[in-house]
TrEMBL record:
Active site (record annotation): 35
Annotated Thioredoxin domain residues: 1-159
The keyword Oxidoreductase is annotated on this UniProt entry: yes
Protein name from the UniProt record: Glutathione peroxidase
GO MF term (any one): peroxidase activity
Gene Ontology biological process terms, A to Z: cellular response to oxidative stress
Length: 160
């Protein structure tokens, strides 16, 4: 199994196979517009700007499961991200990342890279998963981890 087995709807409503990202290093992150970690969009965009030409893709998945911090619809979310943070990396439609209705991609990610003490559940917005060029999950980073703190790990994956 790999992330390439999954499909997701883009923020524009188009069904997209993650197979399209084969051979790229991915950072997959659940996002929210009204969260204390929302400024991480700026750091994620900076990583994307720095490394996209070397094969990095950042995939943002809005989620409203944590204190209702992503209440908007897809159009509102996209506008917020572009106006406030200049986001140009791929954004997807709002998904659940935990529970009975979790998107299958996030069920896979959390199974492959459990959190602290083996917990599979995503605890909050801006949990980040690093995926290698073969589609395997390399690591999981907590919401408190600054995206810029992932830079060395991203560079190592890009070099492989």
């Amino acid at each position: 199994m790999s992330v390439y087995e999954y499909h997701a709807k883009t923020i524009m409503g188009e069904e997209k196979s993650l197979q399209e990202y084969e051979g790229k290093v991915l950072v997959i992150v659940n996002t929210a517009s009204k969260c204390g970690f929302t400024p991480q969009y700026k750091e994620l965009q900076a990583l994307y700007d720095e490394f996209k030409d070397q094969g990095l893709e950042i995939l943002g998945f809005p989620c409203n499961q944590f204190a209702g911090q992503e209440p908007g619809n897809e159009e509102e979310i996209q506008e917020f991200c572009q106006l406030n943070y200049g986001v140009t990396f791929p954004m997807f439609a709002k998904v659940d990342v935990k529970g009975d209705h979790a998107h299958p991609l996030f069920t896979y990610l959390t199974r492959e890279a459990p959190g602290i003490l083996g917990s599979k559940a995503i605890k909050w917005n801006f949990t980040k998963f690093l995926v290698n060029k073969q589609g395997a999950v390399v690591s999981r980073h907590s919401p408190q981890t600054s995206p810029k703190d992932m830079k060395k790990e991203i560079e190592a994956q890009l070099a492989q």
